[in-house]
TrEMBL record:
It is an enzyme of class 2 (transferase). It holds the Pfam family WS_DGAT_C. It catalyses: an acyl-CoA + a 1,2-diacyl-sn-glycerol = a triacyl-sn-glycerol + CoA. It comes from the Bacteria. Residues 329-480 form the O-acyltransferase WSD1 C-terminal domain. Keywords: Acyltransferase, Glycerol metabolism, Lipid biosynthesis, Lipid metabolism, Transferase. This is diacylglycerol O-acyltransferase.
Length: 613
């Protein structure tokens, strides 16, 4: 007997607020999936000591309720007329997502890297929750890792997460306390999902969403046009040179062809403090140093194969638009295009070129607006976007035009301290990322516990020797470090012989005078603020103490700040003289504030009031 259709239940399903639709930016990762391009992110975590599989499974099971999407699957709207929906999977079984294997002999780093490549190359089942974990035992011959340690390879589809939310997942599954071993774990929360929604209810839900917001697409287009006009006006008024794909065409490289299904990867591990010292000596950001190191490795790799283009390669550098308070999973990223200066032989000149590019790129990104960029993705009808992606891959349209960029380089800040699993220390974390036709190279920098792992993901056709490329990354870092330190010593010698003074000293003299003339402001901006003024190889520290009756502004040898402001001497001087705008320095990342949101906001208001006096 045929099942009776209950229209009341169908309408109720259509209005169910617990069923969430994926966003346009998430959908981009879904319909980019192909037989040679599974679109998942992975981490390889090496855990010290003999962690038992039973304990690991219990830990994951006890925390699944904190990661709702790990028990949800995607359900497509009939005929792909709209974006799919996240729904609870009534058939969820944790044993279908956890895999226990032993590392084959010889149980060394090379074998682990090969096994990881094989696991990473396999696609996830789109009919189930989009994640899997491989628990690999018997790491017996890896240097600096105790015998019997385990490796944990976690794969999560990119439709679920971006880099920042992936770090959040890590914070849920792992502990920051080594004393968790033997501690009684919480009983897994009950999971009682509803049956899968009817196809008709999904169609009704999509139609209801359109009726609620019929002007979504024209509104987004209007906002985009406004931002575009504003961006054009800013360019007309700007005296800085702008990256233009017509003036500087993106070259076609060996990284921009069709890819194979088997992944290759390699990693270089660098000290975070080492990179930060170079950043302080040269100014700019940590990301600038990482881009310059990667550019050096890319230049050598292509030069060795006699495939180095005359034009500089262009990197796609993802930027998180996720606020610090946003803990939701999903993708909240925009993209910045940076010329990597691979046409410049000298590493220092290359770094300076990249620094200029990142400043311009952040300015352009801000002019358009990250939120507008994100809205643009949601404005594209899913059916059209899905069709376009399919045609692009099927007919190799990438071969008919220059690529928009050559390589993706992403930098994800990870946990600063150690992580543990049932009391066992996580030794290292490596991030593997998806590649697609036309873009066969992606480099992911991930910081953890004072280390930065720069992991290269490619395929056997594009870069069969990814381990050699990683060696070039390490050598590029060594070369850049030697040149920066050599240049810093020369600069420091010149400064000492000439008794050079800080250019920003007049700023602090004027600030003292400002508070003397306006004593009532001290209460308004009450607090202690420390400024670290970089002068290349040396730094000068100042303390602004507004906690007492009288404002104290003085030099200080040792800082123990609640609020730290880092800025270059030259930039602070230019800011004081009105030749640079505070907003401009913020956009370009040339002023860095560390501390609570309330205190850093208070300091920025103080600085703005002083500059506008």
């Amino acid at each position: 007997m045929a099942k009776k259709i209950d229209l009341k239940d169908i309408v109720q399903d259509a209005l169910d607020s617990s069923i969430h639709q994926i966003s346009g930016s998430d959908a981009a990762f879904l319909y980019a999936e192909s037989p040679t391009s599974p679109m998942h992110i992975a981490t390889l975590n090496i855990v010290e000591g003999s962690l038992k599989y039973k304990d690991f499974k219990e830990i994951v099971a006890s925390k699944l309720h904190m990661l709702p999407k790990f028990r949800q699957r995607l359900l497509s709207v009939p005929m792909n007329l709209d974006y799919p929906y996240w729904v609870d999977d009534p058939n969820f079984d944790i044993d279908l997502h956890l895999n226990r294997i032993k590392l084959p002999d010889p149980s060394n780093w090379k074998t682990l890297r090969s096994l990881t490549s094989t696991i990473f190359s396999a696609p996830l089942d789109l009919r189930r929750p989009l994640w899997s974990v491989h628990f690999i035992e018997g790491l017996d011959e890896i240097a600096q890792v105790p015998k019997g340690s385990v490796a944990i390879i976690t794969k999560v589809h990119h439709v679920m997460i971006d880099g920042r939310s992936g770090v959040g997942i890590m914070g849920v599954l792992y502990d920051s306390d080594e004393n968790e071993k033997g501690k009684k774990r919480a009983v897994p929360m009950p999971y009682d999902p509803e049956p899968l929604p009817d196809e008709l209810s999904l169609l009704l839900k999509s139609g209801y969403g359109f009726l609620k917001n019929p002007f979504k697409i024209p509104k987004t287009i209007g906002e985009t046009v406004y931002s575009f006009i504003k961006n054009k006006a800013a360019k007309t008024l700007s005296i800085q040179k702008e990256f233009n794909s017509a003036t500087y065409p993106v070259p076609i490289t060996i990284f921009n062809g069709s890819i194979s299904a088997k992944r290759t990867w390699g990693t270089a591990i660098l000290s975070f403090d080492r990179i930060n010292v170079l950043r302080k000596m040269m100014g700019g950001s940590i990301n600038d140093i990482i881009l310059a190191i990667c550019a050096g490795g890319i230049r050598r790799y292509l030069e060795e194969r006699e495939r180095l283009p005359m034009q500089p390669l262009v990197a796609n550098v993802p930027i998180s638009i996720r606020s610090k308070s946003d803990t939701k999973m999903g993708n909240q990223i925009a993209n910045m295009m940076i010329q990597l200066a691979t046409h410049i032989e000298d590493p220092l000149e290359r770094l300076e070129y990249i620094q200029e590019q990142t400043m311009l790129g952040k300015s352009r990104h801000n002019a358009m607006g990250a939120k507008t960029l994100a809205k643009m993705a949601d404005a594209v009808p899913f059916g059209l976007a899905n069709l376009a992606a399919g045609l692009y891959i099927k007919y190799n349209i990438k071969d008919l035009h220059r690529p928009p960029f050559n390589v993706t380089i992403t930098n994800v800040p990870g946990p600063r301290g150690l992580l543990y699993l049932n009391g066992h220390k996580v030794v290292s974390i490596f991030g593997l990322t998806p590649v697609v036709d036309g873009f066969g190279l992606i480099i992911a920098a991930f910081s953890y516990n004072g280390q930065v792992s720069i992991t290269t993901t490619s395929d056997t056709k594009t870069m069969p020797d990814a381990d050699k490329f990683s060696r070039y990354i390490r050598e590029s870092a060594n070369e850049l470090e030697a040149l920066i330190k050599k240049a810093g010593k020369k600069k420091n010698t010149v400064q000492k012989s000439g008794s050079a003074k800080s250019k920003s000293t007049p700023f602090f003299a004027a600030l003292k005078k400002y508070f003397k003339e306006n004593p009532t402001l001290q209460k308004k901006y009450k607090g202690q603020y420390h400024l670290e003024i970089s002068q290349g190889a040396t730094t000068e520290n100042w303390e602004l103490d507004l906690s007492e009756e009288k404002a104290e502004i003085k030099k200080k040898k040792n800082l123990n700040p609640k609020v730290l402001i880092e800025i270059e001497d030259q930039n602070l001087y230019q800011l004081y003289k009105g030749k640079l705008l505070l907003e401009e320095l913020q956009i370009q990342g040339r002023i860095k504030l560390t501390g609570s949101k309330a205190n850093t906001t208070k300091f920025m208001k103080l600085l703005t009031a002083f500059l506008e006096r």
